[in-house]
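Exercise 4. Each item below gives a protein and its sequence. For each, produce the structure-token representation.

Item: Claudin (Cnemophilus loriae).
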Amino acid sequence: MSAALQVTAFGLALLSTLFLLLATCTDCWMVNADDSLEVSHKCRGLWRECVTNMQDGVRTCDQYDSILADHPVKIVVTRTLMITADLLAGLALATLVLGLDCVTFLKEHPCVKLKMCYGAGVILSAGSILGLIGSVWYAVDVYVERAMLVSHNIFLGVHYDFGWSCWLGMAGSTGCFVASVLLTCCLY
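Answer:
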């Protein structure tokens, strides 16, 4: 039972960590259409902004000036939280691999291996909380930006939606949290 739980938690943690990494690297955190005809489709991410022409499928991307340039707070905070979550999730995966019962590392010390699994669960939960805060922070800021336009009656045919990268970050963070709960609470 313990080995099956460890392997299940490892698989979930691996998939969720990949989701977090993909969310951090991709550029579709906020989606908006520039006009009511939806001639173009714009995705804004943490690193660049891309516009896709819906008629011919041509996609052009603009990199942000510099990583050290002044950026909106939502981008800086989300970048920081997501990169930290990625690093913590990667560290937790490495620790978890060494703590798995099916790995021969420290086979004669099962107590140490169990502590490594618990430690991986704690690190994974810290990373998942940071990733969830980063994803939700960005999503709330997108919602507030849209609400400000609506409240000031500035409707230019532009609508804002959460992009798939934002949803992927939330799913990856939630999966990491579930894996950490499996490792810390259910592993005896």
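Check: Residues 3-29+71-186 form a domain with the Butyryl-CoA Dehydrogenase, subunit A; domain 3 fold (CATH 1.20.140.150).
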